[in-house]
């Protein structure tokens, strides 16, 4: 089971519905606040066993604040930090949610992926592509 304590640092998205911060949210409210489509949230429920919203009559989903934080963490890992779903699931299950993806899994070295580092990586990629074409 995931340690939801590690997700406390994950910010909740701004909700403009007037509900209390600790209120349960529908799938539509969560999708709208995070900019994620509803079908993606349903798919993530299948892919991330730790994501289990409360289901009421008729299968209507209600997400608790810790569910919303988990979804925000999944979104950050997958869409901003480039994790695969499998990698994000492993990072979450190991409790590495609060750590930057730039930290190697072994924890040996911290690498900051700044714009400069990205530009250097793109340049290396171009040189490798040119070398492969020449070969």
Descriptive report:
This protein folds into 2 domains: 4-101, Multidrug-efflux Transporter Regulator, Chain: A, Domain 2 (Orthogonal Bundle), CATH 1.10.1660; 105-135. The longest helix has 20 residues, at 115-134. Residues 99-111 have low confidence and may be disordered. With 135 residues, it is mainly alpha-helical. α3 (65-80) packs across α4 (85-93). 47% of the residues lie in helices and 5% in strands. The chain contains 5 helices and 3 strands, in the order βααββααα. A 3-stranded antiparallel beta sheet has the order 1-3-2.
Key traits:
mainly alpha; 47% helix; 135 residues; Multidrug-efflux Transporter Regulator, Chain: A, Domain 2; 3-stranded antiparallel β-sheet; single chain
CATH architecture of the largest domain: Orthogonal Bundle
- Percent helix, as a range, is 40-55%
Q: Which sequence of SSEs, written as H and E, runs from N to C? A: EHHEEHHH
Number of strands: 3
Please render the helix and strand layout as text:
Elements: E1 25-26, H1 27-34, H2 38-47, E2 54-55, E3 61-63, H3 65-80, H4 85-93, H5 115-134
Antiparallel strand pairs: 1-3, 2-3
